[in-house]
């Protein structure tokens, strides 16, 4: 039987991005070699703030077309101390997500075996959420401008965009995700009491699409109250859908409540599969620890597992997560999780677990 080869474009980017992506490639390659059920071919793209400083561009001409030749994109992080954040974000990450219509940003959160939540009485299993972030418009639509720059009467606008088209597609994706999980419950996060146009459309479309999903319970929550519920009643939440900015904020809180931002993964999906989807750890460039070899590679491993799931390699994805959790449970943890292990020690241990799994076959 011939095995499928998945072509993965890697963009390590800035800060700890190159360290964790290199750990991710090591683990993925080992998994593919050990299981023998699929193959991976990596192509590396050096698009970063360094490239930008040298060439004036994050993405060279024709770069997006090259990316489209791949089945998936594995992304590290972007952001440098000497480049304004809005330039790096719009130059690289959003310059990929938006044209490639990766409109569904998926952020699963749970407490991995061997890690703990800062919440009292919250063990693995008590917190198991998927946050779906609208990833193409909303508060990140890039609409707005500045006039009278530098004058006391300077003004700036930042307009959030909510289109029926984009709200409908993200709601449909969110209901489908909720339906695929045992509890079949979707919490629609809103702020329609204060944001009386876009967010009211958001709520109305959620209710309309919800009619197609009679088996999924539709639960509504204002974003401010949602933060309290996440901290006080984590077990009452399952699948969540929120606007670009609301979900950005809620997902950092979610990662912290689950133990560390060093373990949290993200998928930027084009559910139509016309374009490759992009997978990245949630954490940023982390300059305080860049180059020290102590970054937590677990977020990238979990991200790699999400990528394998999307590529249809669900058994391999499960084995990868099993190996990662066994290593965490054994107490080999990086600093963000209260341990002393290095990136390399965690990576080597995960590779050993993968090889043990392979020996069982
Ligand atoms: C995220 C990040 C980005 C965002 C930053 C780096 C601009 O926080 O992916 O959540 O706000 O989208
Ligand atoms: Mg964020």
From TrEMBL:
Enzyme class (EC, first level): oxidoreductase
Signal sequence, start to end: none
Catalytic function, reaction form: (R)-malate + NAD(+) = pyruvate + CO2 + NADH
Record flagged with keyword NAD: yes
Cofactor: Mg(2+); Mn(2+)
Record's keyword annotation contains Iron: no
Highest taxon in the source lineage: Eukaryota
GO molecular function per UniProt: D-malate dehydrogenase (decarboxylating) (NAD+) activity; magnesium ion binding; NAD binding
Family: Belongs to the isocitrate and isopropylmalate dehydrogenases family.
Name under which the protein is recorded: D-malate dehydrogenase (decarboxylating)
